Structures are given as structure tokens and as C-alpha cells.
Amino acid sequence: MDNNEFPEKLYHYCNISAFMSIIKNKCFWLSDTKYTNDKEEICAFKDAVWAALNELVCNKKINEEMANKIWITYVYNTLPGYISCFSEEDDLLSQWRSYGDDGNGVAIGVDFNSLSIERGGPFRMCTNEKKCYGRQVLYINELWKNEIKNIFKKILDGKKNIEEVSPDDLSGIFNLSYYTKNDGFKEEAEWRITYLPLLMFDQKTMEVVDNFPAFKEIKFRSTRDKIISYFEFSFKPESVKEIILGPKNNFDVETLRMFLGANGFKGVNIKKSKIPYI
Predict the structure, then answer these.
(1) I want to staple 264 with a disulfide (CB 3.0 to 4.6 A). Which of 110, 186, 210, 237 is the partner?
(2) What are the tens digits of pLDDT across the range 141-162?
(3) Looking at residue 247, what DSSP letter applies?
(4) Domain range annotation of the chain
(5) CA distance 117 to 95
(6) Where are the beta strands (DSSP E) in the chain?
């Protein structure tokens, strides 16, 4: 299957509180990537970018000044990205443990083809357009690190200064970080909905310029010790095709059907996990 072609159904694992909020509000929260469960994935991509630039300098393909400028551009100007995660697997123990409240939660089966998202991308600069994208996660191993190096070589080889490099090409590489993950998580078979808004900052105060449309789409919530920004991605009830109850979930199915029906969800298939996990 092409990595831009959506599977028939993809599953979002969550706890009961999140499930009820998703159904009642008919939206998924796309969270700021700084606060994901897998913070190291962005670091892994940064390491690959640094290694690629270093190799180009060592091989005299670009000079050190240009490499430093690109690195500073990447590290200090990476805009916030917002993601929600889904899996091809409808009943995976590691998913229940990590995201489904240790088996007490649910997995929501969604028809991605019915969602208002574009396939692939956005391997280009962020824009003012309110667009979300769906794409399969790329699992970083040594081969992928080499691939990142090869992409850099094609874009940068022979260039003498950063002005010769297309901003779209650079941001295209940097945006890959929102779709990459350590190879150790490969069994999750993850896909993501991503929103990469264009946010502009005042050069003097470093405050967000609030007249940009994207800024008005961002919402905020609190945890015990943090303020976290997020984006609400709305969907129609027909997009939800299936609910998988976790191994430890004790939902009464009739009550669940009443809850779904009261919120406009009809014809949803309900199944219980087959994993013997207590």
C-alpha cells in the first residue's frame, strides 16, 4: 500500500474521559508535539539532520557557515506542530497499555477517507490555509538516517550560501519531523492527522502576531503544571465505524449504544478486545 493511501479503518486509542469528549464534541484534539508521549522522536530527527549537515561539511559539499545557518534556522524557527495519532491495529496490547488507560479505555475506528484531510504532505512551508493532512508515520532507523542525508545532498550540493536554497525545500525536510518515530515503535503501525499552522512572531517582543488566521484556531488547556496548546479537528458522526472496548473495559453495551445514539452516531460496530489482559 502506498504510504499516502488510507487503510479502510484506523484506530484512535484513548481513555474513557477522552472518548466521551470526542463523541460529544465530534472532534479530535491535535496536541502540540512538544507534549506528546514520545518526545524523543523529534530529537531523533534532529540528530539525523545534524549528522547529515556534518557529513556534507566534512565532504566539502557545503561550508560550515552555511551548515550553521541551516541548523539555526531549523532549531530556532521550527513552528509548533499539532498531531493526533491513529493505528492500523485495532487490538494491540502495547497500544492499550500506553494510550488506552492500561486496557480500561477504547479504540475508536475511523474511516479516514471520510475526513476533511489531505493525503501526504505537507512537504512545503506552512501556510495560512486551515488544512490538515493524514500520513503514515516513517520509522527512523539507520537506513532512514541515510535517506535524510541523501535528501540534503540533493538540495544543498553545490550551493554556496543559504540564499540559493529554496525555503520550500528546507521546510519540506523539517516538516518530516512531525511524521517520524523511532524504529522501536514500528508495531504500532501509526498514522497521524497533522496541522502545521503559520504563526508569525514579532521580532522584538517574540509575541505571536495575533491577526494571523491560524492563531485564532489554536486553543489552550491546562494540566497540573503546564499550559498546552491544541487544535480541534472536527468530523462527522458517519466517520466513526467501530468502537473496540479495551481488555479491562466494563462498559454496558446497551448504555454505550444509547450514548452514541444521543450524540448522533448510528450503525457503529461495537466489539470487545480479545486480549486476555487483567
Answers:
(1) 237
(2) 766 677 777 777 777 766 766 6
(3) T
(4) 10-272
(5) 24
(6) 10-14, 27-32, 82-87, 106-110, 118-119, 133-136, 138-140, 180-182, 190-195, 218-222, 227-234, 240-245, 269-272
